[in-house]
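seq as requested:
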Amino acid sequence: MSCALDSTKVQQDDGSMRGIEIIPEGCQAVSEDVCASGYMAPAGNVTFPVNSLKQCCKCKEGEACPLCVNPTACTEEEKEEFVTVGDCFGNAVLAPSSAPAAQEPPETNPTTMYTLAVLIILLLLILAGFYLFSR
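struct tokens:
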């Protein structure tokens, strides 16, 4: 299956040529400024060559491919070079860049919680003391 955009082939010891190999569903959605196709395989998803860097993937069939001269209508030659029909794409979805990221609430230190509880109890005791002595 041809998932990698880079078509470089490496000659092996037995004389055969071998191209970049990516595990099935190894290509994940990224922004087009990272890989023009919109998909990239992290280094851990590249099985050949060993110790590879991350690799840009081909475009997904049925989607507009920015690598083609006309992204919405690739020629047959462009499809052969830039588009893949293989089981290359995982189901990770690229978050829209215009949507604000959900913020997690800050972590609360248990010591801070205990200190706050003790202060509240002391405040209640002081108020109860003022109430009792003012009668």
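The chain has two domains: 9-84, 106-135.
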